[in-house]
Each structure stands twice: as structure tokens, then as C-alpha cells.
Amino acid sequence: MRAGNFDFVKFPEFKEEAENIGDYPRLEDTPDQPVLTKTDGEWDRAARGVQAEAEEFSVPSEGDLPKTDAEIEKALQDNRDKVEAYKLDDPQ
């Protein structure tokens, strides 16, 4: 069974994005190799940092866990901030 030939630009969900696409880069203008990549040494340092964090990790004891809603929300926000920082470091 074949899917229909839909013109997605006609759908309001895609119309604004389709109108603001602009020009696509030409194949001739693309670099031969990725330009925003880490060197081997940078990857090694990053991996060692993760390994060091893992070695320092310990499961919190019952007394160290957040108790109030405010403490829980702060812990969640701290973790969201860490995730966001990690995403910003991602070369993709």
C-alpha cells in the first residue's frame, strides 16, 4: 500500500517553518570533514572526567535525601541544569 502524496506545506503546523526555511547549503559548500569536533585529547579528558565523577559517586543515605517539596524541586532543578550543561557540550 502506498502512502498518499501529501504537501505538508499546506498544513498550518508546517506552513510558518516552511516559509522561513531559507536556502539550503549547496553540497560544494560543505566541508570535507566535520568542523566542530573534539580532538582525541579532548575526548580523553572528558571521558576521564566522567570516570572520576563515577568513582566519587555514592548512594545517598536516608538522612541525606531531600524531605520537603522545596528540597525535592531544588534537587530536580539542579539535575535539569546538569543535563542542560551536558547537552550544550554535545557537538551535535
Keywords:
mainly alpha; 92 residues; 0% strand
Provide a concise account of the structure shown.
With 92 residues, the chain is an all-alpha fold. The protein contains three helices and no strands. The radius of gyration is 23 Å and the shape is flat.
Describe this structure in words.
The protein is mostly helical and 92 residues long. The protein has a domain at 1-57. The chain is 50% helix and 0% strand. The protein has 3 helices and no strands. The radius of gyration is 23 Å and the shape is flat. It starts with 11 loop residues before the first helix and ends with a helix.
| Rg over C-alpha atoms, rounded to the nearest angstrom | 23 Å
Q: Classify the helix fraction into a percent range.
A: 40-55%
Mean pLDDT across all amino acids: 82
Shape: flat
| Total number of beta strands | 0
Largest sheet: none
Structure annotation, total helices: 3
Query: Could you say which structural class the secondary elements and strand pairing correspond to?
Result: mainly alpha
Give the CA-CA distance, first to last residue.
36 Å
The SSE string, one letter per element, is HHH
* Beta-strand content estimate: under 5%
Unreliable parts: none
How do the helices and strands line up, and which of them pair or pack?
Layout: H1 12-19, H2 40-56, H3 69-89
